[in-house]
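anyone else get weird line breaks when pasting these?? whatever heres mine. first is seq + C-alpha coordinates for prot A
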Amino acid sequence: MSLRVLALSCLVFLLSLTILATSDQCQYLVRVQTGDRDSGGTDSKISLKLFNSLSNQSYTIKNLEDWGKMPPGHDYFERGSLAFFSHSAPCISVCGITVTSDNTGNKPGWYLESVEVTVSGRISDKISFPVNQWLALDEWPNRLYATVDYLCSWFICLKSTPSSVILK
Protein backbone atom coordinates (compact mmCIF):
# COMPACT_ATOMS: atom_id res chain seq x y z
CA MET A 1 0.00 0.00 0.00
CA SER A 2 2.74 2.49 0.93
CA LEU A 3 4.54 1.74 -2.35
CA ARG A 4 1.38 2.74 -4.28
CA VAL A 5 1.08 5.95 -2.26
CA LEU A 6 4.74 6.75 -2.92
CA ALA A 7 4.35 6.06 -6.66
CA LEU A 8 1.19 8.18 -6.82
CA SER A 9 2.91 11.00 -4.91
CA CYS A 10 5.85 10.91 -7.33
CA LEU A 11 3.47 11.00 -10.29
CA VAL A 12 1.59 13.99 -8.88
CA PHE A 13 4.90 15.76 -8.19
CA LEU A 14 6.16 15.17 -11.75
CA LEU A 15 2.87 16.35 -13.24
CA SER A 16 3.06 19.50 -11.11
CA LEU A 17 6.57 20.21 -12.39
CA THR A 18 5.39 19.74 -15.97
CA ILE A 19 2.49 22.14 -15.48
CA LEU A 20 4.79 24.74 -13.90
CA ALA A 21 7.32 24.39 -16.71
CA THR A 22 4.73 24.82 -19.45
CA SER A 23 3.06 27.80 -17.77
CA ASP A 24 6.29 29.83 -17.85
CA GLN A 25 5.04 32.47 -20.30
CA CYS A 26 6.55 35.78 -21.34
CA GLN A 27 5.04 38.70 -23.23
CA TYR A 28 6.65 39.43 -26.61
CA LEU A 29 6.48 42.73 -28.47
CA VAL A 30 7.77 42.51 -32.04
CA ARG A 31 8.39 45.59 -34.22
CA VAL A 32 8.85 44.98 -37.94
CA GLN A 33 10.18 47.72 -40.22
CA THR A 34 9.60 47.20 -43.94
CA GLY A 35 12.18 48.95 -46.10
CA ASP A 36 11.37 51.91 -48.33
CA ARG A 37 12.24 50.22 -51.63
CA ASP A 38 10.23 50.10 -54.86
CA SER A 39 7.86 47.10 -54.62
CA GLY A 40 9.27 46.47 -51.13
CA GLY A 41 5.92 45.60 -49.52
CA THR A 42 4.17 42.24 -49.59
CA ASP A 43 0.85 40.52 -48.97
CA SER A 44 2.60 37.18 -48.37
CA LYS A 45 2.18 35.28 -45.13
CA ILE A 46 5.20 36.00 -42.91
CA SER A 47 6.43 33.68 -40.17
CA LEU A 48 8.94 34.46 -37.44
CA LYS A 49 11.10 32.00 -35.53
CA LEU A 50 12.64 33.26 -32.29
CA PHE A 51 15.56 31.16 -31.08
CA ASN A 52 18.56 30.71 -28.86
CA SER A 53 20.86 28.14 -30.44
CA LEU A 54 22.99 27.93 -27.29
CA SER A 55 20.10 26.58 -25.21
CA ASN A 56 18.45 24.92 -28.23
CA GLN A 57 15.18 26.77 -27.53
CA SER A 58 12.88 28.18 -30.18
CA TYR A 59 9.36 29.38 -30.77
CA THR A 60 7.79 29.85 -34.20
CA ILE A 61 4.97 32.25 -35.00
CA LYS A 62 3.47 30.66 -38.12
CA ASN A 63 1.57 33.77 -39.23
CA LEU A 64 2.91 36.98 -37.72
CA GLU A 65 -0.28 38.89 -38.59
CA ASP A 66 -2.11 36.72 -36.03
CA TRP A 67 -0.15 38.65 -33.38
CA GLY A 68 -0.90 42.00 -35.06
CA LYS A 69 -1.65 45.04 -32.88
CA MET A 70 -2.39 47.56 -35.61
CA PRO A 71 -5.92 48.99 -36.14
CA PRO A 72 -8.52 46.76 -37.85
CA GLY A 73 -8.09 46.63 -41.62
CA HIS A 74 -4.38 47.52 -41.43
CA ASP A 75 -2.34 46.30 -44.40
CA TYR A 76 0.79 44.79 -42.84
CA PHE A 77 4.28 44.69 -44.40
CA GLU A 78 3.76 47.58 -46.82
CA ARG A 79 6.61 49.69 -48.20
CA GLY A 80 8.20 51.90 -45.53
CA SER A 81 5.78 50.82 -42.79
CA LEU A 82 6.39 49.96 -39.14
CA ALA A 83 4.11 47.30 -37.63
CA PHE A 84 3.69 46.02 -34.08
CA PHE A 85 2.86 42.51 -32.95
CA SER A 86 2.36 41.18 -29.43
CA HIS A 87 1.46 37.93 -27.71
CA SER A 88 2.46 35.64 -24.87
CA ALA A 89 4.56 32.55 -25.52
CA PRO A 90 7.08 30.37 -23.69
CA CYS A 91 10.00 32.38 -22.29
CA ILE A 92 13.14 32.27 -24.43
CA SER A 93 16.28 34.36 -24.13
CA VAL A 94 16.14 35.37 -27.79
CA CYS A 95 19.40 35.97 -29.63
CA GLY A 96 18.41 34.89 -33.12
CA ILE A 97 15.53 35.13 -35.59
CA THR A 98 14.51 33.60 -38.88
CA VAL A 99 11.87 35.45 -40.89
CA THR A 100 10.21 33.53 -43.73
CA SER A 101 7.82 34.51 -46.53
CA ASP A 102 5.44 32.01 -48.13
CA ASN A 103 5.84 33.89 -51.47
CA THR A 104 2.09 34.28 -52.10
CA GLY A 105 0.11 37.20 -53.47
CA ASN A 106 0.72 39.77 -56.17
CA LYS A 107 4.40 40.85 -56.21
CA PRO A 108 5.29 38.69 -53.19
CA GLY A 109 8.84 40.01 -52.80
CA TRP A 110 9.45 41.85 -49.52
CA TYR A 111 12.32 44.08 -48.38
CA LEU A 112 12.73 43.63 -44.63
CA GLU A 113 14.75 46.36 -42.95
CA SER A 114 14.71 45.26 -39.30
CA VAL A 115 13.00 43.35 -36.51
CA GLU A 116 13.08 44.32 -32.84
CA VAL A 117 12.00 41.89 -30.13
CA THR A 118 11.18 42.90 -26.55
CA VAL A 119 10.57 40.12 -24.02
CA SER A 120 8.89 40.82 -20.67
CA GLY A 121 8.30 38.41 -17.82
CA ARG A 122 10.71 35.99 -16.18
CA ILE A 123 13.12 37.03 -18.95
CA SER A 124 13.46 40.70 -19.86
CA ASP A 125 15.32 41.43 -23.08
CA LYS A 126 15.25 43.93 -25.90
CA ILE A 127 17.22 43.12 -29.01
CA SER A 128 17.32 44.60 -32.50
CA PHE A 129 18.00 42.55 -35.60
CA PRO A 130 19.09 44.53 -38.67
CA VAL A 131 18.09 42.44 -41.69
CA ASN A 132 18.28 44.77 -44.73
CA GLN A 133 17.47 41.98 -47.15
CA TRP A 134 14.94 40.97 -49.78
CA LEU A 135 12.80 37.92 -49.08
CA ALA A 136 12.16 37.17 -52.74
CA LEU A 137 13.14 34.72 -55.43
CA ASP A 138 13.75 37.46 -58.01
CA GLU A 139 15.97 39.73 -55.85
CA TRP A 140 19.37 38.96 -54.36
CA PRO A 141 20.02 36.77 -52.29
CA ASN A 142 17.16 34.93 -54.08
CA ARG A 143 15.64 33.22 -51.05
CA LEU A 144 12.47 33.49 -48.99
CA TYR A 145 14.05 33.69 -45.56
CA ALA A 146 16.52 35.76 -43.57
CA THR A 147 18.34 34.68 -40.42
CA VAL A 148 20.15 36.90 -37.94
CA ASP A 149 21.94 35.06 -35.12
CA TYR A 150 23.97 37.05 -32.58
CA LEU A 151 26.70 34.52 -31.86
CA CYS A 152 24.42 32.05 -30.11
CA SER A 153 26.17 29.25 -31.92
CA TRP A 154 29.56 30.45 -30.58
CA PHE A 155 28.52 29.78 -26.96
CA ILE A 156 28.09 33.49 -26.34
CA CYS A 157 24.78 35.20 -26.65
CA LEU A 158 25.26 38.86 -27.46
CA LYS A 159 22.43 40.92 -26.00
CA SER A 160 21.66 44.54 -26.68
CA THR A 161 19.92 46.91 -24.33
CA PRO A 162 19.04 50.53 -25.03
CA SER A 163 22.32 51.76 -23.52
CA SER A 164 24.78 48.89 -23.78
CA VAL A 165 25.77 45.54 -25.15
CA ILE A 166 26.08 42.69 -22.65
CA LEU A 167 27.95 39.43 -23.14
CA LYS A 168 25.97 36.75 -21.42
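and prot B, same format (seq, then C-alpha coordinates)
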Amino acid sequence: MHPTAPAAYIAALALAVAASWLLVSFVLRHAGRFGLWATPGERQSHDRTTPTGAGLGLVLALIITSVLLEHYLAIDPGWLLIVIPVIGALTVVGALDDRYSVSAVLRLLIQFAVSFALLGWLETHWLELDWWHWLIGATAVVWVMNVYNFMDGSHGMAGFQGVFAGLVLFALFARQGEPALALPALLLAGVCAGFLPLNFPVARIFMGDAGSVPLGFALAALIGLGFSQGALSLAAGLLVLSVFLVDSTLTLFKRVIGGERWYTAHKQHIYQRLIDHGWPHSRVLLLYQAINLVLVAPAIMLAGMYPELAWGMAGIVFLLLTTGWVAASLRLGMRK
Protein backbone atom coordinates (compact mmCIF):
# COMPACT_ATOMS: atom_id res chain seq x y z
CA MET A 1 0.00 0.00 0.00
CA HIS A 2 1.31 3.47 -0.84
CA PRO A 3 2.86 5.20 2.21
CA THR A 4 0.54 8.20 1.79
CA ALA A 5 -2.52 5.96 1.98
CA PRO A 6 -3.34 6.72 5.63
CA ALA A 7 -3.44 10.46 4.95
CA ALA A 8 -5.45 9.86 1.78
CA TYR A 9 -7.94 7.74 3.69
CA ILE A 10 -8.31 10.41 6.38
CA ALA A 11 -8.92 13.06 3.72
CA ALA A 12 -11.45 10.83 1.95
CA LEU A 13 -13.29 10.18 5.19
CA ALA A 14 -13.40 13.89 6.04
CA LEU A 15 -14.70 14.70 2.56
CA ALA A 16 -17.47 12.10 2.86
CA VAL A 17 -18.52 13.35 6.31
CA ALA A 18 -18.59 16.99 5.20
CA ALA A 19 -20.41 16.29 1.93
CA SER A 20 -23.06 14.24 3.68
CA TRP A 21 -23.65 16.82 6.40
CA LEU A 22 -23.96 19.64 3.87
CA LEU A 23 -26.29 17.78 1.51
CA VAL A 24 -28.48 16.33 4.27
CA SER A 25 -28.72 19.82 5.80
CA PHE A 26 -29.91 21.09 2.42
CA VAL A 27 -32.56 18.35 2.27
CA LEU A 28 -33.63 19.23 5.82
CA ARG A 29 -34.21 22.85 4.84
CA HIS A 30 -36.30 21.96 1.79
CA ALA A 31 -38.00 18.66 2.73
CA GLY A 32 -41.23 20.38 3.72
CA ARG A 33 -41.59 22.04 0.32
CA PHE A 34 -41.70 18.61 -1.32
CA GLY A 35 -43.95 16.98 1.25
CA LEU A 36 -41.24 14.76 2.69
CA TRP A 37 -42.64 14.19 6.16
CA ALA A 38 -42.58 11.14 8.42
CA THR A 39 -45.69 10.99 10.58
CA PRO A 40 -46.07 8.80 13.68
CA GLY A 41 -47.73 5.54 12.69
CA GLU A 42 -47.74 1.76 12.85
CA ARG A 43 -44.02 1.45 12.13
CA GLN A 44 -42.37 4.65 13.37
CA SER A 45 -41.15 4.97 16.96
CA HIS A 46 -41.17 8.78 16.99
CA ASP A 47 -44.01 10.85 18.43
CA ARG A 48 -44.09 13.91 16.17
CA THR A 49 -44.10 14.70 12.47
CA THR A 50 -40.50 14.98 11.27
CA PRO A 51 -38.86 15.71 7.90
CA THR A 52 -37.64 12.65 6.04
CA GLY A 53 -35.69 11.94 2.86
CA ALA A 54 -32.20 12.50 4.27
CA GLY A 55 -31.15 9.56 2.13
CA LEU A 56 -31.26 11.90 -0.87
CA GLY A 57 -28.36 13.89 0.55
CA LEU A 58 -26.55 10.94 2.08
CA VAL A 59 -26.54 8.82 -1.08
CA LEU A 60 -25.72 11.79 -3.30
CA ALA A 61 -22.71 12.46 -1.07
CA LEU A 62 -21.63 8.84 -1.48
CA ILE A 63 -21.99 9.05 -5.25
CA ILE A 64 -20.16 12.38 -5.57
CA THR A 65 -17.23 11.40 -3.34
CA SER A 66 -16.86 8.04 -5.09
CA VAL A 67 -16.75 9.64 -8.54
CA LEU A 68 -14.42 12.46 -7.48
CA LEU A 69 -11.94 10.24 -5.65
CA GLU A 70 -11.82 7.72 -8.49
CA HIS A 71 -9.45 10.14 -10.22
CA TYR A 72 -6.97 10.00 -7.31
CA LEU A 73 -7.43 6.67 -5.50
CA ALA A 74 -8.22 3.11 -6.47
CA ILE A 75 -11.93 2.21 -6.39
CA ASP A 76 -13.31 -1.16 -7.42
CA PRO A 77 -14.92 -1.05 -10.91
CA GLY A 78 -17.93 -2.96 -9.60
CA TRP A 79 -18.57 -0.18 -7.11
CA LEU A 80 -18.46 2.50 -9.80
CA LEU A 81 -20.26 0.67 -12.60
CA ILE A 82 -22.89 -1.29 -10.67
CA VAL A 83 -23.29 -0.07 -7.10
CA ILE A 84 -23.25 3.68 -7.78
CA PRO A 85 -25.90 3.59 -10.56
CA VAL A 86 -28.06 1.18 -8.56
CA ILE A 87 -28.05 3.18 -5.33
CA GLY A 88 -28.87 6.28 -7.35
CA ALA A 89 -31.90 4.54 -8.84
CA LEU A 90 -32.95 3.08 -5.49
CA THR A 91 -32.74 6.53 -3.91
CA VAL A 92 -35.13 7.95 -6.49
CA VAL A 93 -37.57 5.07 -5.92
CA GLY A 94 -37.19 5.46 -2.16
CA ALA A 95 -37.84 9.20 -2.30
CA LEU A 96 -40.98 8.60 -4.35
CA ASP A 97 -42.06 6.02 -1.79
CA ASP A 98 -41.37 8.45 1.07
CA ARG A 99 -43.53 11.03 -0.67
CA TYR A 100 -46.27 9.09 -2.46
CA SER A 101 -46.02 5.43 -1.32
CA VAL A 102 -44.89 3.17 -4.16
CA SER A 103 -46.53 -0.24 -4.58
CA ALA A 104 -44.81 -2.91 -2.47
CA VAL A 105 -44.87 -5.30 -5.45
CA LEU A 106 -43.16 -2.75 -7.70
CA ARG A 107 -40.52 -2.03 -5.05
CA LEU A 108 -39.84 -5.75 -4.67
CA LEU A 109 -39.53 -6.25 -8.42
CA ILE A 110 -37.03 -3.37 -8.62
CA GLN A 111 -35.05 -4.78 -5.70
CA PHE A 112 -34.81 -8.21 -7.33
CA ALA A 113 -33.82 -6.61 -10.64
CA VAL A 114 -30.89 -4.71 -9.10
CA SER A 115 -29.88 -7.80 -7.11
CA PHE A 116 -29.68 -9.83 -10.31
CA ALA A 117 -27.63 -7.01 -11.87
CA LEU A 118 -25.13 -7.28 -9.01
CA LEU A 119 -24.94 -11.06 -9.33
CA GLY A 120 -24.50 -10.70 -13.08
CA TRP A 121 -21.46 -8.50 -12.50
CA LEU A 122 -20.01 -10.96 -9.98
CA GLU A 123 -20.50 -13.90 -12.35
CA THR A 124 -19.05 -12.04 -15.33
CA HIS A 125 -15.88 -11.09 -13.47
CA TRP A 126 -15.34 -13.43 -10.55
CA LEU A 127 -17.76 -16.28 -9.88
CA GLU A 128 -19.41 -19.26 -11.55
CA LEU A 129 -23.04 -19.32 -10.45
CA ASP A 130 -25.60 -22.10 -10.77
CA TRP A 131 -29.31 -21.28 -10.91
CA TRP A 132 -29.72 -21.82 -7.19
CA HIS A 133 -26.87 -19.41 -6.48
CA TRP A 134 -28.82 -16.77 -8.39
CA LEU A 135 -32.00 -17.50 -6.46
CA ILE A 136 -30.42 -17.57 -3.01
CA GLY A 137 -28.07 -14.67 -3.76
CA ALA A 138 -30.78 -12.36 -5.08
CA THR A 139 -33.08 -13.23 -2.17
CA ALA A 140 -30.26 -12.52 0.29
CA VAL A 141 -29.50 -9.11 -1.24
CA VAL A 142 -33.19 -8.18 -1.25
CA TRP A 143 -33.48 -9.28 2.37
CA VAL A 144 -30.50 -7.15 3.43
CA MET A 145 -32.06 -4.11 1.74
CA ASN A 146 -35.31 -4.65 3.57
CA VAL A 147 -33.64 -5.49 6.88
CA TYR A 148 -31.82 -2.17 6.77
CA ASN A 149 -35.10 -0.46 6.00
CA PHE A 150 -36.92 -2.25 8.84
CA MET A 151 -34.23 -1.27 11.35
CA ASP A 152 -34.33 2.41 10.38
CA GLY A 153 -36.96 3.29 12.97
CA SER A 154 -35.06 4.75 15.90
CA HIS A 155 -32.86 7.82 16.28
CA GLY A 156 -29.33 7.02 15.11
CA MET A 157 -29.94 3.30 14.63
CA ALA A 158 -29.33 2.98 10.88
CA GLY A 159 -26.68 5.70 10.85
CA PHE A 160 -24.51 4.21 13.58
CA GLN A 161 -24.85 0.73 12.08
CA GLY A 162 -23.65 2.15 8.77
CA VAL A 163 -20.62 3.67 10.49
CA PHE A 164 -19.85 0.40 12.27
CA ALA A 165 -20.31 -1.79 9.19
CA GLY A 166 -18.37 0.57 6.93
CA LEU A 167 -15.41 0.85 9.29
CA VAL A 168 -15.28 -2.90 9.91
CA LEU A 169 -15.37 -3.66 6.18
CA PHE A 170 -12.73 -0.98 5.60
CA ALA A 171 -10.44 -2.61 8.17
CA LEU A 172 -10.99 -6.08 6.73
CA PHE A 173 -10.33 -5.00 3.15
CA ALA A 174 -7.32 -2.87 4.08
CA ARG A 175 -5.85 -5.80 6.02
CA GLN A 176 -6.23 -7.99 2.93
CA GLY A 177 -4.46 -5.41 0.76
CA GLU A 178 -7.60 -4.44 -1.16
CA PRO A 179 -7.62 -0.61 -1.19
CA ALA A 180 -10.09 -0.52 -4.09
CA LEU A 181 -12.68 -2.14 -1.81
CA ALA A 182 -11.51 -0.45 1.38
CA LEU A 183 -12.15 3.07 0.07
CA PRO A 184 -15.87 2.58 -0.77
CA ALA A 185 -16.42 1.03 2.66
CA LEU A 186 -14.76 4.03 4.29
CA LEU A 187 -16.84 6.47 2.23
CA LEU A 188 -20.00 4.65 3.27
CA ALA A 189 -19.02 4.99 6.92
CA GLY A 190 -18.25 8.67 6.33
CA VAL A 191 -21.58 9.61 4.77
CA CYS A 192 -23.40 7.83 7.59
CA ALA A 193 -21.32 9.76 10.13
CA GLY A 194 -22.12 13.04 8.40
CA PHE A 195 -25.83 12.27 8.67
CA LEU A 196 -25.76 11.48 12.39
CA PRO A 197 -25.58 15.03 13.84
CA LEU A 198 -28.97 15.66 12.21
CA ASN A 199 -30.46 12.36 13.37
CA PHE A 200 -29.09 11.81 16.88
CA PRO A 201 -29.64 12.25 19.79
CA VAL A 202 -32.80 14.01 18.59
CA ALA A 203 -33.85 13.30 15.02
CA ARG A 204 -34.28 16.53 13.07
CA ILE A 205 -34.65 14.45 9.89
CA PHE A 206 -35.01 10.76 9.07
CA MET A 207 -33.13 8.76 6.47
CA GLY A 208 -36.30 7.40 4.88
CA ASP A 209 -36.51 4.69 2.23
CA ALA A 210 -34.41 7.02 0.06
CA GLY A 211 -31.46 6.17 2.30
CA SER A 212 -32.05 2.90 4.11
CA VAL A 213 -32.70 0.72 1.04
CA PRO A 214 -29.70 2.02 -0.98
CA LEU A 215 -27.45 1.64 2.07
CA GLY A 216 -28.61 -1.93 2.51
CA PHE A 217 -27.79 -2.64 -1.12
CA ALA A 218 -24.39 -0.94 -0.86
CA LEU A 219 -23.45 -3.05 2.16
CA ALA A 220 -24.66 -6.26 0.52
CA ALA A 221 -22.70 -5.33 -2.61
CA LEU A 222 -19.50 -4.66 -0.66
CA ILE A 223 -19.83 -8.03 1.04
CA GLY A 224 -20.48 -9.70 -2.32
CA LEU A 225 -17.57 -7.94 -4.02
CA GLY A 226 -15.25 -8.77 -1.13
CA PHE A 227 -16.30 -12.42 -1.03
CA SER A 228 -16.04 -12.90 -4.79
CA GLN A 229 -12.49 -11.49 -4.80
CA GLY A 230 -11.31 -13.53 -1.82
CA ALA A 231 -10.96 -10.48 0.43
CA LEU A 232 -13.77 -11.42 2.81
CA SER A 233 -15.31 -14.65 4.04
CA LEU A 234 -19.07 -14.96 3.77
CA ALA A 235 -19.17 -15.68 7.50
CA ALA A 236 -17.46 -12.37 8.29
CA GLY A 237 -19.83 -10.57 5.96
CA LEU A 238 -22.84 -11.99 7.77
CA LEU A 239 -21.34 -11.04 11.11
CA VAL A 240 -21.04 -7.39 10.05
CA LEU A 241 -24.84 -7.16 9.84
CA SER A 242 -25.67 -9.83 12.43
CA VAL A 243 -27.43 -7.57 14.96
CA PHE A 244 -29.81 -6.23 12.32
CA LEU A 245 -30.26 -9.64 10.67
CA VAL A 246 -31.24 -11.40 13.89
CA ASP A 247 -33.74 -8.79 15.07
CA SER A 248 -35.47 -8.52 11.69
CA THR A 249 -35.43 -12.21 10.76
CA LEU A 250 -36.68 -13.51 14.10
CA THR A 251 -39.34 -10.80 14.24
CA LEU A 252 -40.55 -11.91 10.80
CA PHE A 253 -40.62 -15.58 11.89
CA LYS A 254 -42.55 -14.65 15.01
CA ARG A 255 -45.16 -12.78 13.01
CA VAL A 256 -45.53 -15.59 10.45
CA ILE A 257 -45.85 -18.27 13.14
CA GLY A 258 -48.35 -16.10 15.00
CA GLY A 259 -50.55 -15.92 11.92
CA GLU A 260 -50.17 -12.16 11.64
CA ARG A 261 -50.20 -10.16 8.42
CA TRP A 262 -46.41 -10.27 8.34
CA TYR A 263 -46.16 -8.00 5.28
CA THR A 264 -47.83 -5.03 6.99
CA ALA A 265 -46.16 -2.21 8.95
CA HIS A 266 -45.53 -2.90 12.62
CA LYS A 267 -43.43 -2.02 15.67
CA GLN A 268 -42.48 -5.49 16.90
CA HIS A 269 -38.72 -5.49 16.48
CA ILE A 270 -36.97 -5.66 19.82
CA TYR A 271 -35.59 -2.12 19.47
CA GLN A 272 -39.10 -0.79 18.84
CA ARG A 273 -40.59 -2.73 21.74
CA LEU A 274 -37.90 -1.41 24.07
CA ILE A 275 -38.83 2.15 23.07
CA ASP A 276 -42.52 1.38 23.59
CA HIS A 277 -41.61 0.13 27.08
CA GLY A 278 -40.03 3.45 27.98
CA TRP A 279 -36.41 3.11 26.90
CA PRO A 280 -35.04 6.35 25.40
CA HIS A 281 -33.72 6.09 21.85
CA SER A 282 -30.18 6.74 23.07
CA ARG A 283 -30.28 3.79 25.48
CA VAL A 284 -31.56 1.44 22.77
CA LEU A 285 -28.82 2.61 20.42
CA LEU A 286 -26.19 2.12 23.12
CA LEU A 287 -27.37 -1.46 23.67
CA TYR A 288 -27.18 -2.39 19.99
CA GLN A 289 -23.80 -0.78 19.40
CA ALA A 290 -22.42 -2.24 22.64
CA ILE A 291 -23.32 -5.67 21.26
CA ASN A 292 -21.51 -4.77 18.05
CA LEU A 293 -18.38 -3.63 19.88
CA VAL A 294 -18.23 -6.27 22.62
CA LEU A 295 -19.44 -9.35 20.73
CA VAL A 296 -19.56 -8.86 16.98
CA ALA A 297 -16.34 -6.91 16.33
CA PRO A 298 -14.07 -9.34 18.25
CA ALA A 299 -15.70 -12.27 16.45
CA ILE A 300 -15.05 -10.63 13.08
CA MET A 301 -11.44 -9.95 14.08
CA LEU A 302 -10.92 -13.58 15.06
CA ALA A 303 -12.63 -14.77 11.88
CA GLY A 304 -10.23 -12.62 9.87
CA MET A 305 -7.15 -13.85 11.73
CA TYR A 306 -8.18 -17.51 11.71
CA PRO A 307 -10.29 -18.20 8.59
CA GLU A 308 -10.83 -21.81 9.62
CA LEU A 309 -12.76 -20.54 12.66
CA ALA A 310 -14.94 -18.06 10.73
CA TRP A 311 -18.10 -20.15 10.50
CA GLY A 312 -17.70 -21.34 14.07
CA MET A 313 -17.45 -17.75 15.29
CA ALA A 314 -20.48 -16.78 13.19
CA GLY A 315 -22.45 -19.69 14.62
CA ILE A 316 -21.61 -18.69 18.20
CA VAL A 317 -22.53 -15.04 17.62
CA PHE A 318 -25.82 -15.83 15.91
CA LEU A 319 -26.68 -18.34 18.65
CA LEU A 320 -25.98 -15.77 21.38
CA LEU A 321 -27.94 -13.08 19.55
CA THR A 322 -30.85 -15.45 19.02
CA THR A 323 -30.84 -16.40 22.69
CA GLY A 324 -30.79 -12.74 23.67
CA TRP A 325 -33.62 -11.95 21.25
CA VAL A 326 -35.81 -14.73 22.64
CA ALA A 327 -35.09 -13.72 26.24
CA ALA A 328 -35.84 -10.06 25.51
CA SER A 329 -39.00 -10.95 23.63
CA LEU A 330 -40.29 -13.07 26.50
CA ARG A 331 -39.42 -10.43 29.08
CA LEU A 332 -41.03 -7.62 27.11
CA GLY A 333 -44.08 -9.78 26.54
CA MET A 334 -44.49 -10.33 30.28
CA ARG A 335 -44.27 -6.57 30.89
CA LYS A 336 -47.19 -5.70 28.61
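btw re prot B: The first strand starts at residue 37 and ends at 38. Residues 5-334 form one domain.
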